[in-house]
């Protein structure tokens, strides 16, 4: 699995896709956090990074599928998938290596944003006037969100040999899991609205963004990742049916 991970990660770094994804993410978040007056931290009046944590999931919604769309679809189109699957590797090792490579690159995009935290920390009045617990929780939520989106993207890529279709399926899937249940809950009444909203990512992400690291939220994220990766495994096994 580590060999697959290294191969995939190096392939990303040797292609323009990784740099485009990292560049778009950092430029978009930088403009909204520091430049645009309606969302700029400098004009907001509060020492926090809520703008970043509200915006990042929507950017990840498109950028992570752009990373994952080639993982299996390209192998199928190039005809190398059969060669890969005949190697002394299990399906789980192949999926795990490709998945971790995509997730690692997505998490790499978050590293430069730590400069945002440092800047707000230093600019706060008094210095350090920022809710660090909520910031840590928000970063944890973004990391788990990236993990779910990457798993959905891997699944979408395993279902088709066309990268564009894989990208579109992944975007729709990520959107439904992130915002779809919230939208459905908004038209319901009573306790049913709450339980429906808990099926989506947004409710759990909001809890983590408050600095409330609850085991139920962690179980939710890990469960969705496990389900998506298991579905990917079934999609690969379907070649034998």
Automatic annotation (TrEMBL):
The keyword Aminoacyl-tRNA synthetase is annotated on this UniProt entry: no
InterPro entries listed in its UniProt record: ABC-2_transporter_component, ABC2_memb-like, Motility-assoc_ABC_perm_GldF
Record carries keyword Oxidoreductase: no
Domain of life, source organism: Bacteria
One Pfam short name: ABC2_membrane_5
Subcellular location: Cell membrane
Keywords attached to this entry: Cell membrane, Membrane, Transmembrane, Transmembrane helix
Membrane topology: Multi-pass membrane protein
Transmembrane segments: 12-35, 55-73, 94-118, 138-157, 164-181, 218-236
Protein name: Gliding motility-associated ABC transporter permease subunit GldF
Organism of this sequence: Hymenobacter glaciei
Source species taxonomy: Bacteria, Pseudomonadati, Bacteroidota, Cytophagia, Cytophagales
């Amino acid at each position: 699995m580590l060999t697959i991970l290294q191969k995939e990660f190096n392939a990303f770094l040797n292609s323009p896709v990784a740099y485009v994804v990292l560049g778009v993410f950092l430029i978009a978040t930088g403009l909204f956090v520091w430049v645009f007056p309606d969302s700029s931290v400098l004009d907001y009046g509060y020492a926090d990074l809520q703008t970043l944590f509200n915006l990042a999931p929507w950017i990840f919604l498109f950028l992570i599928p752009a990373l994952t769309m080639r993982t299996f679809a390209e192998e199928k189109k190039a005809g190398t998938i059969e060669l890969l699957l005949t190697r002394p590797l299990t399906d789980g090792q192949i999926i795990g290596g490709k998945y971790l490579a995509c997730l690692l690159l997505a998490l790499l995009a978050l590293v430069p944003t730590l400069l945002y935290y440092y800047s707000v920390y230093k600019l706060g009045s008094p210095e350090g006037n920022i809710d660090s617990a909520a910031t840590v929780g928000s970063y944890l939520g973004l990391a788990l969100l990236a993990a779910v989106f990457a798993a959905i993207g891997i699944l979408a890529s395993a279902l088709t040999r066309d990268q564009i279709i894989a990208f579109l399926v992944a975007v729709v899937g990520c959107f439904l899991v992130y915002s779809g249940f919230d939208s459905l809950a908004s038209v319901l009444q009573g306790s049913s609205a709450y339980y429906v909203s808990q099926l989506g990512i947004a409710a759990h992400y909001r809890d983590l963004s408050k600095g409330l690291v609850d085991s139920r939220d962690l179980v939710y994220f890990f469960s969705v990742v496990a389900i998506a990766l298991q579905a990917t495994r079934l999609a690969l096994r379907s070649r034998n049916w």
